[in-house]
Amino acid sequence: MSHAPLRQNLDPRDLLDLDAELSDEERLLRDTVRRFVGDKVLPDVADWFDRGVFPREMAQEFGRLGVLGMHLEGYGCAGTSATAYGLACLELEAGDSGARSFVSVQGSLAMFPIWAFGSEEHKQTWLPRMAAGEAIGCFGLTEPDSGSDPSSMRTTARVDASGDWILDGAKRWSTNGSIADVAVVWARTDPDGPDRGAVRGFVVPTDTPGFSAPVIHRKVSLRASVTSELVLDGVRLPASAALPGVTGMRGPLSCLNEARFGILFGACGAARACYEAALDYSLERVQFGKPIASFQLTQRRLVEMAIAVNRATLLALHLGRKKDAGTLATPHVSVGKLDNVRMALDVAREARSLLGANGITLEYPVIRHMTNLESVYTYEGTNEIHTLILGNAITGIPAFG
Ligand code: FAD
Fold it and tell me: What angle do CA 183, 130, 226 make, to 5 degrees?
């Protein structure tokens, strides 16, 4: 055991020295993504948020950065570790949850199912272009009447006399939907058909007749992200459009696990940005003749935020190492998604309040993160759903329905 005297100082932006836990390669990647966010996201994101847009050109910027499908191997993807992917999500979400959502949906919800379950033709057609950001993907699972319980979906896929698939139905809340070139759509097959009513995934080029993707307007959260309906009105697809490698809910659920993993890192980025904004603000803002950071109550708020952000980041790194070691279980992902997003929302609300009236303007990043995190809290499994997954894992008793 070392008896060396303990160091007295710490880095207020890295309370637990987590930087030292990263390899040189991970640190380089982290710094590269952080610089990209500083150069290409932060200068404009408040404006995108204000106008409710996400510029399509950003797709190719992300492609050049190498973060699209970065955790996948081959087909133009970078093939990094899971932890490296997580760190990229963290830095992107320190910019905006919309930027991280774009990258999560593209890599984990659209590219991943094609990579894991697609035919060689699907992979060759889509993955290199998607990795480069030349083609954009979206994921259609949620429907107007089917959210937390996606197996209740009503979108149907039937085989007609010619052997083609015909898709009918409506998906809702599809990130990137209106700007997508390809949609991975999950639909219930005919109970009398060869798949006996099982859910199948379909690779749907968005210029297929009968497919449309109207934008969902008037959002007050995740405004720098495109969210859409997907309308499938007799969409005719060749037999080869179905993902051959998976049948049943395992398909969409495995994609969600990939995306949730990115989110449990990303939430730490949004929370870190809020904490740092609150720290900087409290050192500059003077009331009662002193910086507000000099009041004990303010210090307590900052300390609670700093501990929360660092503890969550430690959890994310732990889960990242487990994923890379092949020992990560689905309920582990639920621990991270549930606790880290909850933490991020708490930190964002505290930071918002610490900034006083300035906390409600887009001049500071905090309220943008705070409202974004309301979506992050809901998508990819609400807190209740992750609680139920964990309750089931702990007790062995499913309590979903
Ligand atoms: P509901 O399922 O109706 O839930 C409403 C409330 O009831 C929640 O609080 C929930 O926790 C609670 N609840 C539900 N069931 C239970 C239960 N058994 N026990 C206790 N409480 C319960 N979907 C996609 O397919 N693709 C996307 O790209 C996508 N992007 C999205 C982007 C945004 C900005 C948002 C907001 C959503 C997105 N979604 C996407 C949809 C998202 O995954 C769903 O909103 C989410 O699964 C919750 O479904 P719901 O909104 O229908 O809520």
Answer: 55
DSSP assignments along 23-64, one per residue: -HHHHHHHHHHHHHIIIIITTTHHHHHHHT---TTHHHHHHH
Decide whether any atom of ligand 1 lies within 6 Å of the 54 Cβ.
no
Give me the amino acid identity at 6. Answer: L
DSSP state of 96: -
Residues, the chain: 401
Is 379 a pocket residue for ligand 1 (Cβ < 6 Å)? yes
Specify the 3-state DSSP secondary structure of 158.
strand
What letter would DSSP give residue 5? Answer: P
- Looking at this protein, which amino acid is placed at residue 226? V
Atom of ligand 1 minimally distant from the CA of 171: 25
Residue having the nearest C-alpha atom to atom 26 of ligand 1: 174
Q: Is 287 in the pocket of ligand 1 (CB under 6 A)?
A: no
- What SS3 state is found at 4? coil
% the chain with pLDDT above 70: 100
Residue found by looking up tokens 């847009």 in the block = 53
Mean of pLDDT values over 215-222: 98
pTM: 0.97
Contact 382, 333 (CB under 8 A): no
Residue 303 tokens read as 């300390």
- Are 176 and 167 in contact by the 8 Å Cβ rule? The answer is no
What is the best residue among 173, 176, 223 to mutate for testing ligand 1's pocket, by most ligand atoms within 8 Å of CB?
173
pLDDT of 8 > 90? The answer is no
- Our answer to whether residue 121 is catalytic in this structure is no
Place of tokens 């930190």: 347
Q: Which stretches of 285-329 are DSSP H helices?
A: 296-325
pLDDT at 2 over 90: no
Residue type, 174: S
SS3 79: coil
Distance from the alpha carbon of residue 19 to the mean position of ligand 1, in angstroms: 34
Nearest CA to ligand 1 atom 18: 400
CB 193 within 8 A of CB 158: yes
The residue nearest atom 53 of ligand 1, judged by CA position, is 147
